[in-house]
Amino acid sequence: MRPSLPDLTAGMRWWTDELGDGPWFVNGRIGGEGSTYRGEPGKAEFAIALAFSGT
């Protein structure tokens, strides 16, 4: 299952509109094929967004 980037984008928009957070840095795919967990093939895949908030 692919991460839901539209939901991530909507969340970033909300945080920016409500609190002025940003700029945003997005990694749209972490994990998935080629990843391992405790020496076994990894199955988890996700997207992450990080932003600056305040000083």
Brief descriptors of the model:
elongated, 55 residues, two-stranded antiparallel sheet, 1 helix, alpha+beta, 35% strand
First-residue to last-residue Cα separation: 36 Å
**Strand count, sense and closure of the main sheet?**
2 strands, antiparallel
The total count of strands amounts to 4
Order of helices and strands: HEEEE
Instruction: Supply the number of helical segments.
Output: 1
Mean pLDDT: 85
How much beta, percentage-wise? Answer: 25-35%
Question: What count of structural domains?
Answer: 1
Fraction of residues in helix: 25-40%
Strand order of the largest sheet: 1-4
Q: How large is the radius of gyration? A: 14 Å
The class by helix and strand makeup works out as alpha+beta
Unreliable stretches = none
Question: What is the overall shape?
Answer: elongated
Write a structural description.
There is one protein chain. By secondary structure, the chain is α+β, with helices and mostly antiparallel strands. The chain has one domain. It has 1 helix and 4 strands; from the N terminus they run αββββ. The chain has one helix at 5-19; strands at residues 24-31, 36-37, 40-41, 45-51. The chain has a two-stranded antiparallel ribbon. The longest helix is centred in the first third of the chain and has 15 residues, at 5-19. The N and C termini lie far apart (36 Å). The model has no long low-confidence stretch (mean pLDDT 85).
